[in-house]
Amino acid sequence: MKPDPTSEEARPADAAQAPPAPESLRRVAVASFIGTAIEFYDFYVYGTAAALVLNDAFFPNLSSLNATLASFSTYAVAFAARPIGSLVFGHFGDRIGRKSVLVASLLLMGLSTACVGLLPGYSTLGVWAPLLLVLLRFLQGVGLGGEWGGAALLAVEHAPRGRRGLFAAFPQLGPSVGFFAATGIFWVLSETLSDDAFRSWGWRVPFLLSFLLVAVGLFVRLKISETPVFAKVMEDQEASRAPALEVFRRHPKEILLGAGGMVVAYGLFYTATTYCLAYGTKTLGVPRGTMLAVSLVACLFLAAGTWLAATRSDAGGRRRMVLVGSALAVVWGLALFPLMDTEQPVLIALALGGALFCMGVVYGPMGAYLPELFGVRVRYSGASFAYNLGGVLGGAVAPLVATRLQSAFGSSSVGWYVSAMAVVSLLCVLALPETRERELA
Asked: Would you state the pLDDT for residue 175?
């Protein structure tokens, strides 16, 4: 088979080996996409359940507002765990390879999610029920903390020169598909089961499906090979002994600014999905099935924005696309809740769809942008930590802050909060360089 003409095999900085065959590249794209889709499905199943039912199942003795805040707090625990997971899995990903670490993260995430579906509620276990829920949510976060960086590197480090944005689009589409699947399953259950059945056992079904999804993900991931870039590092015995220490010493600016660039993506997503789902059903009184259906429509906007921006970043640059998405988000944050407050399904779909489209424009190029900011010896650790630190700053607190702001100052204050996060990301990315032309090795 002839080498891919777009590869970098002639460049001295690249791995001294033939580029992967087209069949191998397709396998890599599928593996990175399926893995992130499954892991983010697991993560979003919890977010949807937190907005709809976990407050009743695990915090029945609290007031409605405090139970919602408690449910969102268990939701936030995973974000605090994600940087820990990024350092643990990043260490081994930079020491022994991307592939084996991705298999471990998938197992940890999937089994933790499935166990939530088996966990008895407060009425059976008492105080142990929420405590075990927090533990499983923490393990979810550790697993997901190691997932994204490895999946992005799997795609980017296999990709031919000039097509890294395209290949990185596949793992970046995983959240769209995972969210669509999680929301779709909850919508079907909500529409086909009585409210009592849904709250009693129906909400557990999406969690239990994770057993099957983990088996599928493992089957796919065990068939892929190590990335050529990292294989060359291992061949030359140049792997870092302490990648976390090395990346903090050499790349503190890239870590902090990269995390800041991710803030708006997380803030938009978890405000427009988890918080708005709770706000629409409990504050506005929109039927649960309607809000879930609207969220499904909005998810299509996320996928469109992600694919458009990621693929365009190969020609127009990563930095430019992220700046465009952040600027759009500044404006859309102010329109989000006036549209939501109409209580009209079409306008709610427009509100959420517009927010998720802006998020996709930021998020899509990040699959290539964050890995390109770091050298190969510390790339897994650096890209993963920046990505997940942005999740703590933008995603963990968004539903909690939004709930408090809305109760104290009204829904418009939540929109201003979203716009403020977009300004933070805009300023951070302005301080970063363009990376499209950088060598990966």
From this structure: 84
What is the C-alpha separation between 310 and 364, in angstroms, rounded?
A: 4
Cα angle 393, 396, 401 (rounded to 5 degrees) comes to: 90
Collect the ranges in the chain with pLDDT lower than 50: 1-18
Q: What are 11-67's pLDDT values in tens digits?
A: 334 443 445 555 577 888 888 888 888 878 877 887 778 777 777 777 676 666 666
Predicted local distance difference test score (pLDDT) of residue 17? 41
pLDDT score at 3:
42
Among 52, 75, 305, CA closest to 185: 52
pLDDT score, position 424: 96
Q: How far apart are CA 196 and CA 112, in angstroms?
A: 26
pLDDT for 42 equals: 78
State the Rg of the chain over Cα: 21
Displacement of CA 419 from its chain's centroid (Å): 20
The long-range contacts involving 26-29, CB below 8 angstroms and separated by at least 24 positions, are 27/223, 27/224, 28/154, 28/155, 28/158, 28/167, 28/224, 29/155, 29/167, 29/170
E-strand ranges in 343-411 read: none
CB-based contacts of 266: which residues, under 8 Å, 6+ apart? 390, 391, 393, 394, 395, 398
Query: Tokens standing for 170?
Result: 């596949």
Q: Which amino acid, one-letter code, is at 53?
A: V
Q: What is the DSSP string of 271-327?
A: IIIIIHHHIIIIIS---HHHHHHHHHHHHHHHHHHHHHHHHHHHHH-HHHHHHHHHH
The reported pLDDT for the residue numbered 70 is: 67
Rounded to 5 degrees, what angle do the CA atoms 402, 112, 256 make? 50
Structure tokens at 205: 């079904």
Are 282 and 68 in contact by the 8 Å Cβ rule? The answer is yes
Per-residue pLDDT at 208: 93
- DSSP string over 31-59: HHHHHHHHHHHHHHHHHHHHHHTHHHHH-
Do residues 87 and 381 make contact, with C-beta atoms less than 8 angstroms apart? yes
In this structure, are residues 179 and 273 in contact, taking their beta carbons and an 8 Å threshold?
yes
- Exposed/middle/buried for residue 250 (C-beta within 10 Å: 0-12, 13-18, 19+): middle
